[in-house]
Amino acid sequence: MNKIEHIGIAVRDLKAAGNLYEQLLNTQIYKIEEVASEGIKTAFLQTGPNKIELLEALSTDSPIAKFIDKKGEGIHHIAFEVADIQAEMARLKSQGFILLSDEPRPGADNKLVCFVHPKSAGGVLVELVQERIVIGE
User: Fold this and answer.
1) 3-state secondary structure the chain
2) Strands 3-11 and 50-57, how do they pair?
3) Per-residue burial over 36-60, b = 16 or more CB atoms within 10 Å of its CB, e = otherwise
4) How far apart are CA 49 and CA 57, in angstroms?
5) What is the pTM of this model?
6) What is the predicted pLDDT for the residue at 75?
7) How far is residue 81's CA from residue 46's CA, in Å, rounded to a whole number?
8) Once rounded to an integer, what is the mean pLDDT over residues 10-33?
9) By the 8 A CB rule, do 126 and 1 touch?
10) Are 81 and 2 in contact (CB under 8 A)?
11) Which residues contact 131 (CB under 8 A, 6 or more apart)?
12) Signal sequence span per UniProt (predicted)?
């Protein structure tokens, strides 16, 4: 794993949380997008090399809505940048970690993603992220 790529924070109201974190971090949201496959709307902020992803549920049955219902707003996951997500998934699987998918999926901010189940990562939801390569660039 190369570095912490971002910290994901579950929020009830993306606009209100965005305003709060813009003031707190003294920076502006640089990207807002929906990830329909995950049932979320995200906003990204960056200060120096550090990124925060705010996550708002698009429906009451999305994973973020369920997380907030159970635990309230707050840190949802920590994401690590990897050079080769397939190789990292295979390595973790071979060491007994439980992955939440067998293949990486498209995620926010032009990334491929895979999550490691919190039960096998000391209670922390870990996300692996790799920059998506777009042919023709």
Assistant:
1) CCEEEEEEEEECCHHHHHHHHHHHHCCCEEEEEEEHHHCEEEEEEEECCEEEEEEEECCCCCHHHHHHHHHCCEEEEEEEECCCHHHHHHHHHHCCCCECCCCCEEECCCEEEEEECHHHCCCCCEEEEEECCCCCC
2) parallel
3) eebbbbbbbbeeeeebbbbbbbeee
4) 26
5) 0.91
6) 97
7) 15
8) 97
9) no
10) yes
11) 81, 110, 111, 112
12) none
User: How many residues are present in the chain?
Assistant: 137
Tens digits of residue pLDDT in 50-103: 999 999 999 999 999 999 999 999 999 999 999 999 999 999 999 999 999 999
pLDDT at residue 133 in the model: 77
The amino acid that residue 57 corresponds to is A
Mean pLDDT of 7-20: 98
Q: What is the pLDDT of residue 37?
A: 85
Q: Is 130 left (phi over 0), alpha (psi -120 to 50) or beta?
A: beta
Tell me how many degrees the CA angle 47-134-5 measures, rounded to the nearest 5: 25
